[in-house]
Write a structure and sequence with these properties.
- The complex is a heterodimer of chains A (114) and B (109).
- Chain A has 114 residues and is mostly beta strands.
- Chain A contains no helices and eleven strands.
- In chain A, strands 2, 4, 5, 6, 9, 10 and 11 form a seven-stranded mixed β-sheet that branches. In chain A, strands 1-3-8-7 form a four-stranded antiparallel β-sheet, with no helix packed on it.
Chain lengths: 114, 109
């Protein structure tokens, strides 16, 4: 158990819909990272937050947005969903913002868009 | 574009048959190379960090090494429980972690 909690574990929705994925980091970790993993793309970095502020941005679509709240949990919002958005979405956390590489990953939220 | 390439894509070993996985990278300003293990349906689990050429790290049957252009993950006398996908990642300027596609390892008893 990494200590990172993600909900929901599975989500099935239709094209055009909007969903929210939730992540609670390990106790004491200030940084939260979101990754997308699909069969053809591998693990892709989306965005990082540190103590409530956006710190780094990767290949995140404009239809996607995220935020980190004062209690340090984070939410990833996916809107106008397309079939190609079906993937595993991982949240990870670390102590600092320097991205030392030692990230603790949750078990992921599997999104299926029909 | 910065790239991380892992080979082979898949590897089947008999229990006790040692082998190596490769991770080659082309990034500007490498600030660390990392190995992770991922079991099916789970999130990646951190294994090693390597920062400079010549550095080595060991953990049980795994040893990671780093050169200026690539890293190897050596698996000595593997057991079935070592079966997993092994991911390599590099950290570049801007603090972004770039992951490779991974090597799927299957160890048969």
């Amino acid at each position: 158990d990494s200590g990172v909690t993600q909900t929901p574990k599975h989500l099935i929705t239709a094209t055009g819909q909007r969903v929210t994925l939730r992540c609670s980091p390990r106790s004491g970790d200030l940084s939260v990272y979101w990754y997308q993993q699909s069969l053809d793309q591998g693990l892709q970095f989306l965005i990082q937050y540190y103590n409530g502020e956006e710190r780094a941005k990767g290949n995140i679509l404009e239809r996607f947005s995220a935020q980190q709240f004062p209690d340090l949990h984070s939410e990833l919002n996916l809107s106008s969903l397309e079939l190609g958005d079906s993937a595993l979405y991982f949240c990870a956390s670390s102590v600092d913002s320097l991205n030392t590489g030692e990230l603790f990953f949750g078990e992921g939220s599997r999104l299926t868009v029909l | 574009e910065d790239q991380v390439t892992q080979s082979p894509e898949a590897l089947r070993l008999q229990e006790g048959e040692s082998s190596s996985l490769n991770c080659s990278y082309t990034v500007s300003g490498l600030r660390g190379l990392f190995w992770y293990r991922q079991d099916p349906g789970k999130g990646p689990e951190f294994l090693f960090t390597l920062y400079s050429a010549g550095e080595e790290k060991e953990k049980e049957r795994l040893k990671a090494t780093l050169t200026k252009k690539e890293s190897f993950l050596h698996i000595t006398a593997p057991k079935p429980e070592d079966s997993a996908t092994y991911l390599c990642a590099v950290r570049e300027y801007g603090n972004k972690l770039v992951f490779g596609a991974g090597t799927i390892l299957r160890v048969k008893s």
